[in-house]
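Running this now, will post back.
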Amino acid sequence: MQLLKIITLIPFCYIAACKPIVKEQIVPVASKCVFMDGLKVRQFPELNANHIGYLNYGQVVDIVRFSDRKDTINQVQASWALINFKGIDAWIFAGFLRDNCPTEATKLDGLIKLKSPGPIFTLMDKNFNSYIGNIYKNEKCSLKLPRECFSDCSYEAGGGSCSIISSEVSKDIIVIKVRAYKEGSYLKDFNGDYICRIENSEFLIFQTIICSK
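Update: finished.
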């Protein structure tokens, strides 16, 4: 009879001791979007690690954490971001992640919303660290008139000039080509055409753009 009690209590105690296994839920530290096409997904947070896939412009990723290690790619220094890629832990270079990534439909939103009583951008020469001119916004800027977003490049220091040759606004970058001139023979290497590039964003602010020939 005593043996029967033991046998019947074993399954009861076993069942009572059972607790559901709850998998720990990882809360992302940030959500970012990919600001380039073909961002490599790597096994480890380093440049020589094997890549196991790619992410494209506009894809949103939840970041588990950032690495302490930093690397430089295309003159961009940043840490690595740990993500879940197809069910496994993987790493991407955080230097090509942004808070927002404009689409073709929203690529002019940042320019349209940018309000300034004066210029919206100041242009500086990369080699001479010299002032090129100021870029002013055209209020006609719209998806129907993307090439009219910039009204003028004005050199406002005297003894020189600046004019816009062309401009292009894409979902990820704004490119303005200008022609600059300053009086004085010692500045002959300064005079000429410049390419001015700035990352596009839905939240543009007044800033200085570094230009190069």
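The chain has two domains: 26-98, 109-212. More later if anyone needs it.
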